[in-house]
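Troubleshooting log. The previous structure file for this entry was overwritten by mistake, so regenerating from the original sequence record. Sequence copied from the archived sheet and checked twice against the printout by T.R.
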Amino acid sequence: MSLNIKPLSDRVLIEPVAAETKTASGIFIPDTAKEKPQKGTVVALGNGTKDHKMTVKVGDSVLYGKYAGTELKLDGKDYLIMREDDILAII
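Regenerated output below.
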């Protein structure tokens, strides 16, 4: 995938996973009740700062805070851009 976006400084571009559409017992979840995903894949990242070296790399699956980042839409897909500090874990 080639995107024409390069995050600056210690920012990371993440593609969130799709929200669950069905519960484990088979009940379909309506759009208004779906949980916002907190898991995604790193698509692009900045170079870091002189005080902060980047830990994540492109392709990493990560967990992030529920309200972390700024939502944006590129080429018809949803993405989040956030500081690396908002990422909670690499999985």
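The radius of gyration is 14 Å. Archived copy saved in two places this time.
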